[in-house]
Structures are given as C-alpha cells and as structure tokens.
Design brief:
This protein has 70 residues and is mainly alpha-helical. It is 47% helix and 0% strand. It contains four helices and no strands. The radius of gyration is 16 Å and the shape is elongated.
Length: 70
Amino acid sequence: MEERADSHPALFISNRQERISIRSVQHLMEKHGHNAPRHSFITGLVRAEEDISVIQSLSGHSSADMILWL
C-alpha cells in the first residue's frame, strides 16, 4: 500500500485501475505458491487440535466430514 500513489478503496486493482475478483486474487496466490487464506486458517486450527465443532462453525461447513480430510 505504501507503493501505491492512488486513493482507490480496493486493495487489489488491475492494470486498468479496476477492482479484481476474489477468484483472481486466489489464482495469483496459488500461482506464487500460497494456499488460499481460508484453507490455511482452517488447516492451522486442525493442526493446533482445536475443537472440531469450533472449526466446523468457523469454516461454515454444515458437516465435520469436510474438515476431517485435512
């Protein structure tokens, strides 16, 4: 942000000075070797052995089955 000289409200903007989509940000992060932030957050909770019901609630999954594969 310190390098930008504009006052655009979006954090990530295209070369056309337009807001880029969430999927574009995810694609760029994956391209440069970074996991999706939500996945990293949930994985960290699983590895820290947080209560599965808390992880389920924070992840937005209706079933704990989706979390247990981590």
